[in-house]
Amino acid sequence: MHPTPRFARFYRLIGLTVLAIGLFGGAAPASASTGSGWLRLAHLSPNTPAVDVYLYSFHNPKALVVVHHVAYGTISGYQKVPTGEYTVAMRKAGAAASTPPVISTTVDIQSGAAYTVAGMGPANGLRLQVLRDRLVTPKGKALVRIIQASLTQHMVTLRAGRSLLARNVPFASVTSYKVVKPGTWVVSARGRTEHTSSEIALTAGSIHTIVVLDNPGDIKLDDLVDAAGSKVAPSGAPATGYGGMAPRPGGQPGSDLPWLALVGAGLLLSVAGVRKATRPAGAHATGGRRPTAIR
Amino acid sequence: MVALTALLLLTAAGTAVALMRHPIGRGSEVAKQRLASVSGAGAARSAAAEWVARQVSRSSIIGCDTVVCADLLKAGVPSSDLLVLRSSAQDPLGADVVVATSVLQSLFGTRLRSEYAPVVLATFGHGSATVDVRLVAVDGAAAYKLALRKDLAARQAVGAQLIGNKRIALPAAAEAQLAAGNVDPRLLITLPALAERHPIQVLGFFDRAPRASSGVPLAGVELSGADPQAGLSPRAYLRWLTSFLRSQRSVYRAASVSTATRHGRPVVSIRFTWPTPIGLLH
Known about the structure:
Chain A has 295 residues and is of the alpha+beta class. In chain A, 17% of the residues lie in helices and 42% in strands. In chain A, helix 1 runs antiparallel to helix 3. The longest helix of chain A has 29 residues, at 5-33. Chain A is flat and about 50 Å long. Mean pLDDT of chain A is 73; it is low at 1-33 and 236-295. Chain B has 282 residues and is of the alpha/beta class. Chain B has helices spanning 2-21, 29-55, 66-74, 102-108, 111-116, 141-163, 172-179, 185-197, 234-246; strands at 62-64, 82-84, 97-100, 119-124, 131-135, 168-169, 200-206, 220-224, 256-262, 265-271. In chain B, 40% of the residues are buried.
């Protein structure tokens, strides 16, 4: 069913209104006290089984973030998370909450900032690495960084068209962001025995993380949009259903969840209004089962 | 490895014989002082070696002179963890920790304290018999001190956050230590993960090394081994607590997790090894 242009405008207006209420309504109480940042989780360790990832707030034991069943190649959408320090821990996917989680790292969420917590390296050397994601580009440019998560191709060289993006990027490493001229580019990745390419639109003001992944008998590229438009905060969790804040039974005062739902509803209505199929920034699942928040 | 062990033991024996044969005139005050100094130095070296064997992480490489390295071997430190420093042509930067005796002081001069290893983890003995266990600053003293200052600020910031955690009960002294950034980051990082599951009661932070530099944090904590608010029997609570701690890996695995009964109630004592890793808190 496609709305007529008149209804499309109506949907868009209602959607944007709901989105604004959700954003401002949710932001006001939080930012008055501590504010919030954005966080997504990525499993980029090829031979590591799926895990459940937990973030424990130093200050507020109720602000528990849980993402379940993160399998290799899964990158969750961004989630809005209250500012502060968190202990990041993992359990084997599906392990009971009563089993001890294994502490891996910490992340300090700062107001308005975005982070990727990525499981990197081989299974026997798995580490969670916290990456600060940029949200602003130089005027009229795009930014690209590479995460090399292919274990079968230890070194990979990436190009956008003929321009070199990064040479011989070793497994389990992340490059810094590189400024790129906007355009639709054939991005190629070449390892010792495998290569692949993918057409990626790098629009002005957009920020991308291109992930090199093992694909059975092959490698592949995944393009994550960290931000699109220099003033746009990352989004995705409310609309995609990936992970999310884990509410305690009975809810809690000051929870962002209702606001996130409202933001999600607003986004959906806006999207319906413009009748344009778009993929929310940062929302990707290239392998494994879709993670869900169950607590 | 066997050859190195033999060499170290022979060197130590030789040094001991040389010291015993050293001409000491009976009744001479100077000789008495020298003897006291020698025995003081020996005691300080032994104490330092014992302390390093018990308290320093087994993933650390320890720089030492031949005599101290022999003491460390005897104390149970594997020879593969030792870097024997014999001449000033070497530098101690290949080590994580250096046991700074007068021998090493004379080898490296003031650079040992000012550049190579500016932070004291622990000190044993007095006067000329002093033995310091020092942290090696691989990137230089200035960079290390800067990193240490940042780490202290991070410990203070997250310590303040932990004080506000309603599931962690803290005595006033522990609150003050958290606020001052005096608690090891591995403990700071472990506590919220524990508290999310069940409330915890901190009885106190402990384990300051003898005469450590300011800024070297406390690496141990005592927790109550039971909590009525957890809704578990004391036995189940204790099992959960110790199982959680013993399930940790690598840097977050405590060197020791022990239980005891004090005034009729269970106490869990957790202690991490030194050196405290820098940069765990972002």
